[in-house]
Design brief:
The structure is a homodimer. With about 600 residues, chain A is of the alpha+beta class. Chain A folds into four domains: about 10-155, Acyl-CoA dehydrogenase/oxidase, N-terminal domain (Butyryl-Coa Dehydrogenase, subunit A, domain 1, Orthogonal Bundle); about 160-285, Butyryl-CoA Dehydrogenase, subunit A, domain 2 (Beta Barrel); about 290-440, Butyryl-CoA Dehydrogenase, subunit A, domain 3; about 440-585. Helices cover about 55% and strands about 10% of the residues of chain A. Chain A is built from 20 helices and twelve strands. Chain A has helices at about 10-20, 35-55, 60-65, 80-90, 105-120, 120-140, 145-155, 285-290, 295-320, 345-375, 380-415, 425-435, 445-455, 460-480, 485-510, 510-515, 520-550, 555-570, 575-585, 590, and strands at about 65-70, 70-75, 160-165, 180-185, 190-200, 210-215, 230-235, 235-240, 240-245, 245-250, 265-270, 275-280. In chain A, the strands form three sheets. The first copy, chain A, has a five-stranded mixed β-barrel with strand order 4-5-12-7-6. A two-stranded antiparallel sheet of chain A has the order 1-2. The model of chain A has no long low-confidence stretch (mean pLDDT about 95). At the A-B interface, helix 10, helix 11, helix 12, helix 13 and helix 16 of A face helix 9, helix 10, helix 11, helix 12 and helix 15 of B.
């Protein structure tokens, strides 16, 4: 094993303190006890655990995978202690308020710390992330009793949690959820139904598993407006005892990656005695879920970024030490060059860097906006942040998932034949990455969220907010001495996006299907510009760093400027190609007869 | 298991007889005994075996994988009889002449038949393809004794063959091969060295394994000009006996896909008694290899195409039968629509179709050119075919490998969560596909072959030959009533490519590194245009079919025209983006300091 840093420390520091100036958050009351020092302590302890403990556990846990024996899932024997390690670091409730034993840390800092953890072992991190998500739902919408009984134990790491949404017949179509909840006179509901793809839906280390289940109360309205949210524990606490709650682990899916966290099919109430406890009010389940959606989707994006980043670091370390072939300017008698000296290997490495660091920057920016939106003072700035994070979330989820996958593919390619073997990590990371374009809303669903809900649904207001950011960033970039062409190119792309959006808005008014049918291309286009914006922000900070920073950082800052140059030269021009294509609105895939496929 | 057709019969028939008019080959003496009837018999029998026998073996063989026990590889118990089945079909030497028991079939027909076989079980096909490649080398360059002893038994399927090029320290850098061959007085050589990534390098079903090994005769010149080719059998025939030849199976690589054919590390001559037999003349080994390269690389391209195609068919079958969600024009009370009705699913399916069928068309076109180049009458037409197939080979290898992988990714995505599980085939096919951008020359190497050797190395003559084809095809397309914009767009792309090539030629004269550093982008650009040409050919035949063909084929032909429309609207414009980028010649990846990564 090489000494893969998982995430490049100096890059993270640069993003947090030079690009984002995250310390400003400490002026907000919620974060007032914090400082750069407390941020660094938290990130540092997570980093240490990730590097010294988690990293070496990844490969054996991937190889062993989880199994399904005697109706239960068997997780790798190390899993429990590793999850406990993360709980001890405070990772399950770091951002939550003091009254629920949290640390009131910014999501930005949480994301930074989590990046190391995820890059080291995403399955172990997955158990924690799911527990956080489920507990947070109870915290936000549950009764005091539910909080006392479930949330506290989940935040304390005693019990794990899951999100149980998907059903076999419905998939992404949540409107067709059939799991039933029948009210009883004792106040609880009886739950009956089947769920699939429940990550962490069973394990062999935690005392209890708390499922947050979407179900339909008898007589509820059709569609998404009749869905309620329930706490359904595997074991039901009664006094000091934990009683079986008729939740059956029906099977485990064999899957491509994430092999140390099981994906489970669950049957609730096969014997008619599965109790569920309503969270909040009836029929509002999906709304509750959606209020946690930004967090969950940024979580997936962050996981995707980390999975691409650790592979990039593997490829980089390999390229720097693997001699093979010669440069054109070498003679046959010269020893072979390290492959980092070959142009196409450099191209693949810079592309990975541009994708991975761009994604990290976007995710930290989004989390920073979320912190401002949730904890900033009432007023325009906070509303602006809220609008922006809503807009950016589908991009911050999808760009790392889709382009991150491309980056993972390039990492395999850099290692050549060895990349195809499990002697090295990239093939496993490639397998892990593929899930991220599917779970927590597929790329298609994210693109409809972006174009339909976030852009057209706000009458374009969210795009205006983004334009303001682009403009401001371009101005600051020019002042810092960044090549003027970059800011101008971003503003030109921005105008094209505005035009395309107006065209699609008009089209959608006439015919929603036609207006939205290029939504994935639209997301790709906007994401490409958003990443150019991120690289402009980084280039600005790098240009300033070159003037005022330490001499030892010179090559570091030059690296950032080169990656920015790459993005502006190679990727941003795609905005034009995509804009043309969307504007023309080619409909071949709509008009081809089914029999013509 | 659904009834996946592996390859769509009507599409293959269309390509062979309506687009390519492959029967014309029968006018050449080598193919004179053949007719559409004999072609169809051969393809039909391979198809039947692929569908009825091979297809169901794929999944269990992927799941069991090969293992390494007691110094030998254990292949799946079915492997031997399945390989024998392919041998019985004549698949190992179908294109070879009668005097070596071949059938003198065109490579075009062989590729068509092989497509079904590969789509059904690429590992089993792999054993045969490797045996063919190795035997063909002996046939072309070996002595009569080598042919008698080895080639005949390999073509007869008694012994399998491998290609042993790669060494652990050298990878793709064949100039650094260190395996030694020491002459003896008895005429044979003593071989000593290590090879890695030898596909089919060991198995537990064939009586003997014949390795075609690149090695350096003691005192040979440095670099690629000192490499010779040897036959090195695992067991050495002596009289009626087979004696151990000191070839040791040192280990097996665990790998992402192709799990039923092992990738092996071999040690030759650890005890100093490994005998090798020189093929042809000393120091010409790499030249011999390269004369087989077109065949081998088209083989990889064909495998990549088949791997993408079978996944496309899986996704298509799933999309047609999986109800989920509703169209915008449906009401909540309507039953869910099959997902093929959702725009983005249609987009993903049409993109897969355009890639897969485009790749199939390109591969058949290339094989057809190879047949003409090898067996046509002396003259300009034959030279033209030879020039074209040289040019197209790196594209016909790389496009299916790279875009085929994207197509495999889309197949997983269409199946959503199920696509990530091994309940369905796409995840396994995705794993298989990734090898194709790596083996038999990585994408980077193919791109240098295209730009450096095939284009600039011919002074642009090969591009002129391609331009003639584009022009001719555009003219015929216009006559057939294909939208005039398509032919015009192809010719415009062609002019851009010529301009870019001239620019790069001038640049390479000054500085080879600068001239070639965008070679992968160049390959992408040319491939995009070449695929547009293929879709223009198919559109032409489809337009003619709509006028003169059977009414029952109407939707089939419309499907081809829609896929062509998709390619011209969505992909061909990328030529401009790439041409701009290459012309500007951004050098960020060359000028970034190593420490800046």
């Amino acid at each position: 094993m090489n000494d893969n840093p998982l995430i490049h420390d100096r890059t993270l520091e640069f993003l947090l303190y030079e690009v984002l100036d995250v310390e400003r958050l400490c002026r907000m009351p919620y974060f007032q006890d914090h400082s750069r020092q407390t941020f660094e302590m938290f990130v540092g302890s997570c980093r240490k655990f990730a590097r010294e403990v988690l990293r070496s556990s990844y490969k054996p846990m991937d190889e062993a995978a989880t199994s399904y024996e005697g109706g239960r899932v068997v997780t790798h024997p190390q899993t429990g202690e590793l999850v406990q390690g993360l709980v001890d670091l405070g990772l399950v409730n770091a951002t939550r308020p003091y009254e629920v034993e949290g640390q009131q840390l910014p999501s930005t800092i949480m994301l930074a710390a989590n990046a190391y953890v995820t890059a080291a072992n995403l399955s172990v991190q997955g158990f924690c992330m799911l527990t956080t998500g489920a507990a947070h739902l109870i915290e936000a919408f549950g009764s005091d009793e539910l909080k006392e009984t479930y949330m506290r134990r989940m935040y304390a790491g005693e019990w794990t949690g899951t999100m149980a949404l998907t059903e076999p017949q419905a998939g992404s179509g949540l409107a067709d959820i059939q799991t039933r909840a029948t009210p009883t006179e004792e106040g609880h509901y009886l739950i009956q139904g089947s769920k699939v793809f429940i990550s962490g839906g069973d394990n062999s280390f935690s005392e209890n598993i708390v499922h947050l289940v979407l179900a339909r109360i008898d007589g509820a309205p059709l569609g998404t407006k009749g869905i309620s949210l329930f706490v359904v524990p595997r074991l039901r606490p009664e006094g000091e005892e934990l009683l079986d709650n008729d939740v059956d682990t029906a099977g485990a899916f064999h899957k491509l990656g994430w092999r140390a966290i099981p994906s489970i099919a669950l049957n609730f109430g096969e014997e008619g005695r599965c109790r569920g406890y309503l969270v909040g009010e009836p029929h509002r389940g999906l709304r509750y879920m959606f209020q946690m959606m930004n967090e969950a989707r940024l979580g997936v994006g962050a996981s995707a970024m980390a999975t691409a980043m650790v592979a990039y670091e593997e490829a980089l370390a390999y390229a720097k030490t693997r001699p093979q072939g010669r440069r054109f300017d070498q003679r046959a008698t010269d020893p072979p060059a390290n492959i980092i000296e070959h142009p196409d290997v450099r191209r693949m490495l810079l592309r990975q860097k541009a994708i991975c660091e761009g994604a990290l920057s976007l995710l930290l920016t989004s989390a920073h906006l979320l912190d401002r939106a949730e904890h900033g003072p009432e007023g325009e700035d906070t509303l602006h942040a809220a609008t922006l994070v809503e807009l950016l979330t589908p991009i911050a989820k999808t760009f790392p998932a889709e382009k991150g996958f491309e980056s993972n593919v390039l990492a395999v390619q850099v290692l050549g034949g060895y990349g195809y073997t499990s002697e090295y990590l990239p093939e496993a990371l490639l397998r892990d990455q593929k899930l991220n374009s599917i779970h927590e809303g597929t790329t298609g669903i994210q693109s409809l969220d972006l174009l339909g809900r976030k852009v057209l649904g706000t009458g374009g207001a969210s795009l205006v907010a983004l334009s303001q950011e682009f403009e401001q960033s371009s101005k600051l970039a020019a002042e810092a001495g960044v090549p003027a062409g970059w800011g101008n190119a971003l503003m030109a792309a921005n105008r094209r996006i505005a035009d395309v959006t107006a065209t699609l808005g008009a089209r959608a008014l006439e015919d929603p299907t036609r207006g939205l049918q290029h939504s994935v291309d639209y997301l790709d286009m906007v994401a490409t510009a958003v990443l150019a914006w991120q690289w402009l922000l980084m280039a600005t900070a790098a240009a300033e760093g070159l003037q005022t920073g330490a001499a030892t950082d010179k090559l570091f800052y030059e690296g950032k400027l080169k990656a920015a140059q790459y993005w502006f030269a190679t990727e941003l021009p795609r905005v034009t190609t995509l804009a043309d294509m969307i504007t023309i609105g080619d409909d071949a895939f709509m008009t081809i007869p089914d029999e013509g496929f």
